[in-house]
């Protein structure tokens, strides 16, 4: 009798449990309406980098706007001596805090295509991506070619600009960027191109461009409008000879 009763309860209970489970799944599907019930804010590194880049760009714009307000208020306090005004302009041009326009070149660097990565599983992954030293080599070659101004990802490069790799992104002025990387220079295009061609490091990079299809493209630009540098000019760690480090003074950058 006990065995028959146990079998009878199982026959009734099992369908009932399955029915409840089905109702639960149906309710969840209806409430979710085809979406993830536990969405992640950022599921990829690219998303995190883009979010941080947007936030940093917004802060830079706020800083630039506040700086302009300060300059206007200072100008309202009284007229500036013409000789001093010219000196300030010359220094601003040298530092990179004024926008410039002129002909030049744009160099674009890219990682190897995904299909190349899949086709070469035994190749060191470092050989298939653009590194900070690749960007630095292009920038140094362009300076050597007499560039009047340089920008990376449309951000002006000055004497205190640092480029470093963090994971598979490159950080510039504290902002992370993913490839492609665009390095733009204003100057004599023939001299700039010759400096790129004469660079031994870039010649070595070209080997990887041929072997693993790393992106390296040079484009002539008839007219480039380059923005001014909008960040801080204070040096927090380095010191300039002749300027003692004190809490009340901060050395000023006057050129590259």
Automatic annotation (TrEMBL):
Highest taxon of the lineage:
Bacteria
Cellular component GO terms, alphabetical? plasma membrane
Which keywords does this Swiss-Prot/TrEMBL entry list?
Answer: Signal
Q: Which InterPro entries match?
A: DUF881
Q: Which PANTHER family match?
A: CONSERVED MEMBRANE PROTEIN-RELATED, UPF0749 PROTEIN RV1825
Family the entry assigns: Belongs to the UPF0749 family.
Name-wise, this protein is DUF881 domain-containing protein
Which species does the entry assign this protein to?
Kribbella soli
């Amino acid at each position: 009798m006990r065995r028959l009763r146990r079998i009878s309860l199982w026959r009734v209970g099992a369908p009932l449990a399955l029915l409840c489970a089905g109702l639960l799944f149906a309710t969840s599907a209806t409430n979710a309406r085809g979406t993830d019930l536990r969405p992640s804010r950022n599921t990829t590194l690219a998303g995190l980098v883009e979010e941080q880049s947007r936030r940093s760009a917004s802060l830079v714009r706020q800083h630039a706007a506040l700086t302009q307000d300060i300059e206007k208020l200072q100008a309202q306090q009284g007229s500036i001596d013409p000789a001093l005004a010219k000196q300030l302009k010359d220094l601003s041009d040298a530092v990179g805090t004024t926008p410039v326009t002129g002909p030049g070149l744009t160099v674009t660097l890219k990682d190897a295509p995904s299909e190349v990565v899949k086709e070469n599983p035994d190749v060191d992954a470092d050989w298939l991506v653009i590194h900070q030293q690749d960007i630095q080599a292009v920038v140094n070659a362009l300076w050597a070619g007499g560039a009047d101004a340089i920008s990376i990802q449309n951000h002006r490069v000055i004497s205190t600009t640092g480029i470093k790799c963090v994971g598979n992104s490159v950080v510039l002025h504290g902002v992370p960027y993913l490839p492609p990387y665009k390095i733009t220079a204003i100057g004599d295009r023939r001299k700039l191109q010759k400096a790129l061609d004469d660079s031994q490091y870039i010649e070595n990079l070209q080997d990887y461009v041929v072997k693993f299809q790393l992106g390296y493209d040079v484009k002539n630009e008839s007219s480039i409008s380059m923005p001014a540098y909008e960040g801080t000019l204070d040096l927090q760690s380095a010191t300039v000879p002749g300027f003692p480090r004190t809490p009340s003074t901060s050395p000023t950058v006057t050129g590259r």
